[in-house]
Amino acid sequence: MTKISKDTFTFLEELIANNNRDWFNTHKLRYEQAKQNALDFTEELLVGLKKIDPSIPEDLQAKKCVLRIYRDVRFSKNKAPYKSNIGISISSDGRGGTLPGYYIHIEPGKSFIAGGYWMPEAHHLKSIRQEIDYNTSDFLDIIEAKAFKAYFGGLSTEDQLKNAPKYYPKDHPYIHILKLKSFICSRSFTDEEMAGENMINTVLEGMKLIYPLNKFIKEAILQ
């Protein structure tokens, strides 16, 4: 079973301390090895995920999921040319699409897996809130399930409005959910956990719990 190599974390640690083109070009082979490690991990992960989520295209390959390490610095004050992580993004409409999906973040001391829909566009957000309002019990069955809360602790409340969204009363019994601007869940892992022999199964366990959330959201925005 493929695992994230400790060499991948070592490379990222050194990249964080030497985020410049000269250093990167000198260590390009190490980057290619770290990238291949992520590709191998993703390829094996996709085999399991496609059994969980039938909307993931059968022909989706790892190279379409592993994100570029090069940063777009044109409009950023931070001019470091490289990301300090390797990201893996998977959804039914491909990398960078506009549907809910799954994400794996590999970074020294900051690794995590996540899923759901981060900062949906306004028309999608409206549809999601409406579906939650209409079918609250179905949504609660997902996010309050014992296994979901044990693994993720519940939905993230980081992105939310200060006031009730338009058309919803402030005393709505589930206004704390309707105020959310993102519908995501995440779980952090140590470097040692990420490099563990059984990490693919651990990630797939989380993805199996994310799938009902993604399915609910997708049905809300595509109906």
TrEMBL record:
Protein name: DUF2461 domain-containing protein
InterPro entries to which the protein is assigned, alphabetical: CHP02453, UCP028451
NCBIfam families xref list: TIGR02453 family protein
PANTHER family per UniProt: CHROMOSOME 12, WHOLE GENOME SHOTGUN SEQUENCE (PTHR36452), DUF2461 DOMAIN-CONTAINING PROTEIN (PTHR36452:SF1)
Record-linked Pfam families: DUF2461
